[in-house]
Amino acid sequence: MRPGGVTVEDLLDAWLYEANPVPGCENCSAEKRKLDQAVAAGDRPARFAAAQSIRRCRHGTGA
Ligand SMILES: [Zn+2]
Fold it and tell me: For 3-18, how does the pLDDT look when each residue is reduced to its tens digit (9 = 90+)?
């Protein structure tokens, strides 16, 4: 059953793959490229890994 066509997986996806790359951040732009490639390739694990890396990024404020 898929009421409204929205599955739990769809809702999880929205969170798992949420990514807000910061302009000017080298790590974010690199991961965003990976993310775009993973989306194009339909590679969900790679997509998740890239999104997660962006979420955990310190956006060049570290060190
Ligand atoms: Zn960043």
Answer: 678 888 777 666 667 7
Asked if the model's pLDDT at residue 38 lies above 90, the reply is: yes
Q: What is the pTM of this model?
A: 0.70
List the shell of residues around ion ligand 1, using CB closer than 5 Å: 22, 25, 27-28, 57, 59
DSSP string covering 23-47, please? TT-HHHHHHHHHHHHHHHHT-HHHH
Measured between alpha carbons, how far is 29 from 7 in angstroms, rounded to an integer?
A: 30
| Measured distance CA(31)–CA(5) in Å, rounded | 30
To the nearest 10 degrees (0 to 180), the angle between helices 44-56 and 8-16 is: 50
